[in-house]
Amino acid sequence: MSTGLAEVTARAYDLFEAGDLSAAQLLLNNALTAADTDPGNASSALAEAATLYSRVLVGLGEPHSARIWATFAYEAESRLNGPSHERAIRAAATLASVLHRIGNHADSAALYGAVIEGLTAQEGPESPQVLAAHADLATVEYARGECDIARARLAEAWDMTREAYGDAHPAGIRMLARLGAMERDCGHFTEAHQHLSHARELTRVYLEPDHPLVAQITSLSRAPANPHHNCGGPALTTAPADDEAYPGLQDLDGSPLDLPPAPGEAPPDRPQSPVPPDVAETWPPDETASRLPVHVPRQRRRRGRNQPAPLVTGALVAAVIGAVAVVVGLAAVDQGQDPDETAPPAASWPPPPNTTAPQASAPPTTAPRPAPPVRPAPAPAPRPAA
Question: Which domain of life is it from (predicted)?
Answer without folding.
Answer: Bacteria
